[in-house]
UniProtKB/TrEMBL annotation:
Pfam families: ADH_Fe_C, Fe-ADH. Keywords: Oxidoreductase. One of its GO terms (cellular component) is mitochondrion. This is Uncharacterized protein. PROSITE patterns: ADH_IRON_2. Residues 194-377 form the Fe-containing alcohol dehydrogenase-like C-terminal domain. Residues 27-180 form the Alcohol dehydrogenase iron-type/glycerol dehydrogenase GldA domain. The keyword Ribonucleoprotein does not apply. It comes from Fibroporia radiculosa. CDD domains: MAR-like. It comes from the Eukaryota. One of its GO terms (molecular function) is alcohol dehydrogenase (NAD+) activity.
């Protein structure tokens, strides 16, 4: 099944499965929650020494990492800090992070930052298990963006050839998550808002993702309501901690943790984003700004009746009039997403990110699996339309 064609799955409105990840000890949220939540999670895990994993900019340019280090030091649980994690988590950084983890004698990772440190930490712990043959050690995630990598069991990293590679296990999902909006104040506005669009991407694509049960889809509607409401407010008032906290919770709702009996990819927008992001150094939040609205427009043409209904009903939750046909409703949702991208000042194109036009056929093929898929020409058109006229 391609990332685009989810038409053959059974109706998840009538049958399915829901389970929580086996090992999540808790999600703590609220401004200032770091100081109380981190010690509780360390105790729940029986962890004694932490490696802090983060990115260089967050380490060099803010006091966020120092705040985390100080809490760990107060509880005699600080080992070291590793900050060589780059965008899309290059494997060289992961290998160096594994060495730092062992050198520190750490038994837990505390990741601080966006999706790259969180995913890199999963990969470090995956490689550690492969090397030692022991149990998976665990991660506590402290996100400073809205990308929501902390709620998934998989990790994407970039190999030596510049290709995105994935590892996955239920035991790689972070054992604890701390959503402290005070720690997000130094996140650059463009990164904060674009990862908010990544959360919109999660919420929308979960509406047509196979094997997602209805309660999760209704959480996605709630996420969309808050993301459409609070992202523009956060742009207008970036220091409003209450708005940032609500956005962190909305990001959580957009990718609510699930224990799936079998893995299902999110959808075409994410598939395209993964191929564009690693190969051309485009941040994942920006790839969602590029691909989500046109993907939803394409769904108006190719999606199943049930998937169109789920997308159409998003208009009701967003307090928008429905048009009278499912196809027009889905197109209206696409236009609303495009309008949000523009309102946030995030409208962009592939030319700006130096993606050669001649690469488009390969990007499309990698995203949907093959060139014989009947949707392949439509995906080509979608990508070519991401260049300026």
């Amino acid at each position: 099944m391609s990332a685009l064609d989810n038409t053959q799955h059974e109706s998840t409105a009538l049958q399915g499965y829901y389970g929580w990840t086996d090992t999540l000890k808790g999600v703590y949220y609220g401004p200032g929650s770091l100081a109380t939540a981190l010690p509780k999670l360390l105790q729940a895990l029986g962890a004694t020494k932490a490696l802090v994993v983060t990115g260089r900019s967050l380490y060099d340019k803010t006091d966020v990492v120092k705040k985390v280090e100080n809490v760990l030091k107060q509880h005699n649980a600080y080992g070291a800090t590793f900050y060589e994690i780059g965008q899309h988590a290059p494997v060289a950084g992961i290998n160096n992070g594994l060495k730092a983890f062992k050198d520190a004698g750490a038994d837990v990772i505390v990741s601080v930052g966006g999706g790259s440190p969180v995913d890199a930490s999963k990969a470090i712990l995956y490689f550690h298990k492969q090397e030692t043959g022991g149990d998976y050690l665990r991660q506590i995630a402290i996100p400073t963006t809205l990308s929501a990598a902390e709620y998934t069991v998989g990790a994407g990293y970039t190999n030596e050839a510049g290709k995105k590679v994935a590892v996955s296990s239920p035991l790689l999902a972070p054992a604890g998550v701390i959503l402290d909006a005070e720690l997000t104040l130094s996140t650059p506005d463009r990164l904060w808002l674009s990862t908010g669009m990544r959360a919109v991407d999660h919420a929308v694509e979960n509406l047509y993702r196979p094997l997602v049960p209805p309660p999760i889809k209704h959480l996605c509607y709630a996420a969309l309501v808050d993301l459409f409401k609070y992202l523009p407010q956060s742009k207008a008032n970036p220091k409003a901690i209450d708005i940032r906290q609500k956005l962190q919770v909305a990001s959580w709702m957009s990718l609510w943790p699930m224990k799936q009996e079998k893995y299902s990819a999110l959808g075409l927008s994410h598939a395209l984003g993964h191929k564009l992001g690693a190969a051309y150094s485009i941040p994942h939040g920006i790839t969602s700004c590029l691909t989500l609205a046109p993907t939803v427009a394409l769904k108006a043409e190719v999606a199943s009746q049930e998937d169109k209904e789920w997308l159409s009903n998003a208009l009701y939750h967003l307090r928008q009039e429905q048009t009278g046909t499912l196809e027009s409703d889905v197109l209206k949702l696409s236009n609303l997403i495009d309008g949000l991208v523009k309102d946030l000042g995030l409208k962009c194109n592939l030319e700006e990110y130096k993606v050669p036009r001649e690469d488009v056929p390969q990007i499309a093929e990698l995203a949907i699996g093959n060139t014989t898929d009947p949707t392949y020409p439509k995906v080509l058109d979608l990508l070519y339309n991401l260049y300026p006229n």
